[in-house]
């Protein structure tokens, strides 16, 4: 219990003032936990505030149109989180009368809710004694106890969860879970932690064995795939453009984009202009065609690097289903396209 007591004392003295820590409302805790997957707190907080302002309850979120949800999510990435969030809100509102399941096992049944999120809601909202295991927890426990288990392995989560459960004061699991995650986020950080000021610097096994920079052990990531996107930015006589919805499964599902030519490598002006003339705009005459960014914009996703170019095509006459700049900005786009639109429209 010494570890837990020292950890909780540190937390009470050093914790950040975060909006989702001021409530035990499962809706707000669920919202924050989904947002903070793959997202830093500093980036996620403004989104949390925007969402809770737009959708103060699960019923409000359930009643929203998916495009409104995706628009508010724009820039957070991993858009499947937003789509699952919306579907789960609808399920809770209609099938559960707006009430979240009140235990870990039932929370796990919700779409988009995994072991970590279910544990967070169960402990923070209902004080259930179930440990959270995220990257921060892996790091703190592996270093303090010198655990060399590969955290990418199938058995790692179960092993670390058992260790965390053993350390957890069963009368106050929420406080312990918050404390260990905060300690990993602020003190026991991934690179170059300041061990001199750490409250565990006399008892941490990794520090004593000079292994802090070696733990936690994690096997290498999958190989990154490169993709080459060429977006066609149309402008007709009325200065209207056209967009399309990405309906195929994969990245950016249900977000919008300009007409796309995906190639196997970076292609030159001659190749792209020929593709556009051959495959697009049969009903209009192309007046001019130009490359808007000679250097590709590199947009990095977890397992893909996108090399993005925008090509300006001026058309004679008007295009079918054309939209003006003001309307264009109301649609949800991937952040790379959103940034381009903000800059160039």
UniProtKB/TrEMBL annotation:
One GO MF term attached to the UniProt entry: metal ion binding
Q: Which reaction does it catalyse?
A: Hydrolyzes free adenine bases from 7,8-dihydro-8-oxoguanine:adenine mismatched double-stranded DNA, leaving an apurinic site
The alphabetized UniProt keywords are:
4Fe-4S, DNA damage, DNA repair, Glycosidase, Hydrolase, Iron, Iron-sulfur, Metal-binding
Cofactor(s) for this protein? [4Fe-4S] cluster
UniProt feature coiled coil, ranges: none
What range(s) does the HhH-GPD domain occupy? 35-186
Pfam families, per database record: HHH, HhH-GPD, NUDIX_4
| Cofactor binding note from Swiss-Prot or TrEMBL | Binds 1 [4Fe-4S] cluster.
Q: Which family does it belong to?
A: Belongs to the Nth/MutY family.
**What protein does this entry describe?**
Adenine DNA glycosylase
| Gene from which the chain derives | mutY
């Amino acid at each position: 219990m010494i570890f837990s007591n020292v950890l909780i004392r540190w937390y009470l003295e050093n914790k950040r003032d975060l909006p989702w820590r001021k409530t035990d409302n499962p809706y707000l805790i669920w919202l924050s936990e989904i947002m903070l997957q793959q997202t830093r707190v500093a980036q996620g907080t403004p989104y949390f505030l925007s969402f809770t302002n737009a959708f103060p309850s699960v019923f409000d979120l359930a009643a929203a149109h998916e495009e409104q949800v995706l628009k508010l999510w724009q820039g957070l990435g991993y858009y499947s989180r937003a789509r699952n969030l919306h579907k789960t809100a609808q399920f809770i509102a209609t099938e559960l009368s707006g009430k979240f399941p009140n235990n870990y096992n039932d929370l796990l049944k919700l779409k988009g809710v995994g072991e970590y999120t279910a544990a967070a809601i169960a402990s923070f909202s209902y004080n259930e004694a179930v440990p959270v295991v995220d990257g921060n927890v892996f790091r703190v426990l592996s270093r303090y106890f010198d655990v060399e288990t590969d955290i990418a392995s199938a058995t790692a989560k179960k092993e670390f969860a058992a260790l965390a459960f053993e350390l957890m004061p069963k009368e106050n699991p929420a406080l312990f879970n918050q404390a260990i995650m905060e300690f990993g986020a602020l003190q026991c950080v991934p690179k170059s932690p300041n061990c001199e000021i750490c409250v565990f610097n006399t008892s941490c096994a990794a520090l004593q064995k000079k292994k802090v920079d070696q733990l936690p052990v994690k096997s290498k990531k999958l190989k990154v795939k490169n993709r080459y996107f060429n977006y066609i930015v149309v402008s007709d006589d009325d200065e209207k453009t056209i967009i399309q919805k990405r309906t195929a499964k994969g990245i950016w599902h249900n977000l919008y984009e300009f007409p796309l030519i995906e190639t196997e490598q970076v292609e030159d002006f001659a190749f792209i202009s020929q593709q556009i003339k051959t495959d697009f705009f049969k009903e209009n005459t192309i007046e001019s065609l130009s490359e808007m960014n000679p250097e590709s914009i590199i947009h990095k996703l977890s397992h893909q690097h996108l090399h993005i170019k925008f090509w300006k095509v001026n058309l004679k006459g008007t295009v079918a289903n054309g939209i003006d700049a003001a309307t264009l900005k109301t649609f949800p786009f991937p952040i790379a396209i959103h940034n381009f639109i903000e800059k160039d429209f």
